[in-house]
Amino acid sequence: MEIDPFIFRLSIFILSIFIGYYVVWSVTPSLHTPLMSVTNAISSVIIVGAIIASLAGNSETIFNVANIFGFLAILLAAVNIFGGFLVTQRMLAMYKKKKKDK
Amino acid sequence: MSANLLAIFYLISGILFILALRGLSSPETSRQGNFFGIIGMAIAIIVTFIAVGNFSIGFLYILFFLLIGGSLGAFIAFKIPMTAMPELVAGFHSLVGLAAVFVAISAFLNPEVFSLGSVGNIKIASLIEMSLGASIGAITFTGSIIAFLKLRGIMSGNPITFTGQHYLNLLLGLSVVVLIFYLCKMQSDNLFWLIIIISFLLGILLIIPIGGADMPVVISMLNSYSGWAAAGIGFTLENTALIITGALVGSSGAILSYIMCKGMNRSFFNVILGGFGGTDQSSSVKNKEQKPVKNGNADDAAFLMKNASSVIIVPGYGMAVAQAQHALREMVDSLKKNGVKVSYAIHPVAGRMPGHMNVLLAEANVPYDEVFELEEINNDFSNCDVAYVIGANDVTNPIAKTDPQSPIYGMPILDVEKSKSVLFVKRSLSPGYAGIDNDLFYRENTLMLFADAKKMTEDITKNL
Asked: What pLDDT was estimated at residue A101?
C-alpha cells in the first residue's frame, strides 16, 4: 500500500501551521505591524505559480489567456514582494533602543 | 534541475520564511529576519526559472513585469507615510488575493503545464484545491479593497447593514461549496467563473458591516485569508514553499485576529457579524449636558507635567489622524530635560491595525524600550502623576470595569483614572467608536484639553 503524496503535503501544511502558531506567539506586540507587512511579502511567493504559468508553451502561444493571467499575477506579486519587504525594512530601521549615554 | 532538488530548494525557502517571522521576536533580530525572508524569496524565484528552463521571449516578458511591479512596489514602500500603514497593508492583501485568483485561473485554463490533467479532465483533488484557493483569494481581494477604502476614508467607516445580510452571506458561502461540488462533476468553465464572481461579492458583503475601529481585526483576518489562499494554490501546484508560507501566514493572521478580539473582549463572530458602534449616540448625548467638565489649556497642562515626577502617555488613533507623533516626542524631550520620567502605554487595539501606535512612535524616534504594552504598564498608573491621553478614548473608559450594561463591559482598559491627574486631549466631548460616553471626562482629576492633538502638544512644549 502506498501513501498518496497529498498526505505528505497535508502533513507539511499542518506541521507548518503549528510552527506558525508558536513562532507568531513569540513575536513581540510592538512588531505586529512589520509582522503583517512581512507575511504579506512572503505570501507573494505565489509568484512561482505565476512564473510557471506564464512560461508555458512557445513564443506563438505566449499571449494566450492562461499566460496573460500568469503575467498579471507576476505583476501583482512583484508589487507585493518589493513593496512588502522594503516597507518592512523601512519600519524595522526605525526601531531604536534608548541611547546609552543617558 | 530534478524535481527532488527543486523541492529541496523550496523547502529551504520555506525555512527562511520561518526564520523571517522568528526574527520578529525582538527588534534587534528583526532586520536580520527580514533579510532571511528576502533570500528565501530570491531562491524560490530563481530556482523556478531554472527548473522551467525556458529562456525564450516569455522570460523577457516576465522580467519586464517583474521590473514594473517591483519598481512600483519599491516606490510605494519609500513614499508611503507611516500613518498610512493600515491602508497600505490592506492594499497589499488585495494584491495577494488577486494574484492567487489569477494563478488559479491560469492553472484551470492550462492544467497540462502544472501536470494536473487536461482541460475538461482535471484531477478532482486539484479542482477542489484550486477553486478553494481562487475563492478565498477572491474574498481577500474585494474584502481588502473595502477595508482599504474605509481606512483611507474614501468610504465611510460606519457599518453598512441591512436586513437578512447574514443570511445572504451564508447563502452565498453555501452556494460556493455547492458550485465547487458541481465543478468537480461537470468541469465546466462557467461554474469556475461563477465561483470567482460570487466570492468577489462575498468579500464585499463580509466587510461592509464592520466599522472603522474594528479594522485591526479585519486586517488581521484578511491577512490570514491571503495565507489560506496561498496554501490552496500551493496544494494545487504541489509546491512546498507555498504550502509552508500559506500555513505560516494563515496562522499568523488568525493569531493576530484573536489578540485583537481579546483586546476588545469581543468574540470573533461578534466582530465579523459587524454593526457595532457608529450611530447609536442619542442616549449619551442627552445625559452628558448636565455633567460638569474641567476645562484646561496648554499652560495648565505644562504646569502639571513640569511638576510631575512621572508621566505616562496614552496614544490612540487620534494621534495618527493628527500626525502628532513628532510633536509628542518633542514634548517628551522637554519633559525629560525637566527630569520627568516618561513612558508610553499602548492598548492592543489602539489605532487601526495591530502595532500601529508602536510604528508611529518608532518613526518619531521614540526608543522602543520606553513603550509598554497594557499588561506591562497597567499597574504603574497608580504611581504616576500625570497620564496624558492623546487620541485614545474607549480604551481608557473606566465604565468597562463597572457597568455590565455597557457595550464595552469587560474590555481590558488602561487604568488611566488611577493616576493623580489625567490630561485628556480631544477635540470635543463626542463619544468614541463604541458610541458611549467616557466617564473619565467628568472625573475630579481629569483636565480636558479641547484642541487638535498636534497643536495642543506643540503649545504645551512651548510652555514647558
From this structure: 43
Grid cell at residue A14: 499542518
Is any Cβ of chain A less than 8 angstroms from the Cβ of B230? yes
In chain B, the percentage of residues whose pLDDT exceeds 90 is 50
Residue A23 placed within a domain? no
Q: Choose, from B214, B394, B437, B439, the residue flagged as catalytic.
A: B394
Q: Is A42 part of a structural domain of the chain?
A: yes
User: What is the ipTM metric for this complex?
Assistant: 0.93
Ramachandran bin of B163, using left for φ above 0, alpha for ψ from -120 to 50, beta for the remaining angles: beta
Which residue type occupies B442? Y
A78 — contact with chain B (CB < 8 Å)?
yes
pTM summary value: 0.89
| Contact status, residue B376 vs residue B341, Cβ threshold 8 Å | no
A window 36-75, beta carbon within 8 A of B: 36-59, 62, 64-67, 69-75
Q: How far is CA B407 from CA B7, B112, B159, B436, in A?
A: 51, 55, 16, 8
User: Over the stretch B102-114, which tens digit does the pLDDT of each residue have?
Assistant: 999 999 988 888 8
pLDDT digits (tens, 9 = 90+) for B426-462: 887 777 777 778 888 888 888 888 888 899 999 999 8
Residue A1 is assigned to a structural domain of this protein: no
Containing structural domain, residue A64: 30-95
Domain count, chain A: 1
Residue A78 in any domain: the answer is yes
- Set of chain B residues whose Cβ sits within 8 Å of the Cβ of A29: 259, 346, 348, 354-355, 358, 373
